[in-house]
Amino acid sequence: SPFHSNVLLTGGRDSNAHVWDLRAPDRPTSTFTSFSTPPSLAHWNRLTPTQFATTHHGEVHLWDLRRPSSAAHEPSAGSLVQLPAHREPILSLDFSYFRATHLLTASADGRVKFWDTNNPRATCGAITPDLTTHPALDA
Q1: pLDDT tens digit string along 27-45?
Q2: Distance CA 139, CA 135 (A)
């Protein structure tokens, strides 16, 4: 976590995201279950210490550690927000340095999208690079 050096966030094939306290690494302190595809990325919110996001193929799920159902060994009732972000797998995810509700996704569909989690059904903007003029982006 950017706020707590002893807290680690992981995602795995079991479709769960786990939060670990490295001072007691025997088992996770919290488990978050998406009930969809396994998370491919997990990223902390830079400005809100209790929030993180996971990606599941083309979706982003936003989670909060304070949810009562996310206590140790109990799957959460669900994510706070689900963004139907892309049709292809998400390859990169990052939160804003300036606004806690803003994040960016980049996908195998060739698009970069900007989101405000207060309005998860609409993008704030998108970029689709022209790979014919920028072949280095096609890596």
Answers
A1: 999 888 877 788 889 999 9
A2: 8
